[in-house]
Amino acid sequence: MKHEYDVVVVGAGPAGSMTAKHAAQNGAKVLMIEKRQEIGSPVRCGEGISRGSLNEVGITPDKKWIATEVDGAIIVSPNGHQFVINEKQAGNEVGMVLERDMFDKALAAEAAKAGAEILLKTSALGLIKEENTVKGVKAISYGKAIDIRAGCVVGADGYESQVGRWAGIDTILKPADITSCFQYRLTNIKHNYRYCEFIIGSAAPGGYVWIFPKDDHTANVGIGVLLSRLKKPGEVKGYLDRFIQKDERLRNGQPLDSVSGAVSVSPPIERTIADGLLLVGDAARVIDPITGGGIANGCVTGVCAGKVLGKAARDGDFSSAILEEYERLWRDKLENKLWRNWMAKEKLITLSDKTLDDLVQTLSESGIDKLSVHNILKVIRDRHPELVKEFENLI
């Protein structure tokens, strides 16, 4: 049996499914492979996203995969100062908390409707190469070794992409650019289920604690701690457990599940293409370095990739010279923001709890009328210019 396609996508997360959908819609013959037996499971995500980011990539919200819609967010400083971001201030950034497994399945279903094929329990083992050009992937599918030949392989395999490394792209991250995360789905709690909460400071060194409501008595309660701030395995769970015990709203909560993982909080990767290959989503290192959120940016890269791959399929040319358009498209949309947010992250992780208290108080008094990291940094520049001096040109 021959396995020959224009495009093979390795990984069926949001970025992979959006790539598969848009490449198929643009005329490419597409196969998407997923190493797990179920798309979207297990969930390793805080599950938050904004309405605006869905609109940007043409995804229509569906109650089937929305756990709850929120009115805004609350940023909480170490001593309890709160910066409340409501619907008027946030506009399209007011968001929702997903049922991420259902969301991922829905995006994969859209890819299938567009004509993409899907193969589960299929793991990529390496690349097929001819004269330094990628020509497909070697894989094992339901225990059987197969070769899948394709004009282009898309690495949608996430954090520290193995597909990228096989192609000679350096996807290894420094400890200072990795956040170690642990999360409970906690029930029997009392919380403000109309808002997502972000708690910053020494409770989560180099990161933050989050409380994302799933319903009026259940929430994703998680933590991200910069890997370089951890001294031993499992320490991140201890930080979260201590936080929960100190919060009277949470201490009687009971876990329904727990997940752990790592997230890149790095600057953009230098290169996301090679002859016959490109990277999307977390593999392309487009996770927001401030929030650690990757769904929205991953979907953006998928739309960009699909457009270029459709054209490449029609022309029969998947060289890096042709795929360069993908590099340009996603960087035009995301690169400046990713660099700015990484530089802001680098500054934030050096600040004391007292300075963070002052910053949150400043923001709460600022009257900011439209939420974005850009506008927040402008407020900080006006009141605490020394904190943003190194990257003022990006504000």
Q: Please indicate the count of domains.
A: 3
What share of residues is helical? 25-40%
Q: Return Rg in Å.
A: 21 Å
- Low-confidence runs: none
Structural class: alpha/beta
Shape: globular
How many DSSP-defined strands? 18
**Percentage of residues in strands:** 25-35%
CATH class of the largest domain: Alpha Beta
Kindly identify the CATH topology of the largest domain: FAD/NAD(P)-binding domain
Number of helical elements: 10
Order of SSEs: EHEEHEEEHEHEEEEHEEEEHEEEHHHH
Describe this structure in words.
The protein has 3 domains: 4-60 and 100-173 and 268-343, FAD/NAD(P)-binding domain (3-Layer(bba) Sandwich); 175-264, 2-Layer Sandwich (D-Amino Acid Oxidase, Chain A, domain 2), CATH 3.30.9; 349-394, no CATH class. Helix content is 32%, strand content 29%. It has helices at residues 14-25, 51-56, 87-90, 100-113, 162-166, 235-246, 295-315, 320-348, 353-364, 373-383; strands spanning 4-10, 30-33, 48-50, 66-69, 72-76, 82-85, 95-98, 117-119, 122-130, 133-141, 144-155, 178-187, 195-200, 208-215, 218-226, 254-264, 273-274, 277-279. The strands form 3 sheets. Strands 1, 2, 8, 9, 10, 11, 17 and 18 form an 8-stranded mixed beta sheet that branches. The protein has a 7-stranded mixed beta sheet with strand order 6-5-13-14-15-12-16, with helices on both faces. A hairpin with a 2-residue loop joins strand 17 (273-274) and strand 18 (277-279). It starts with a strand and ends in a 12-residue tail after the last helix.
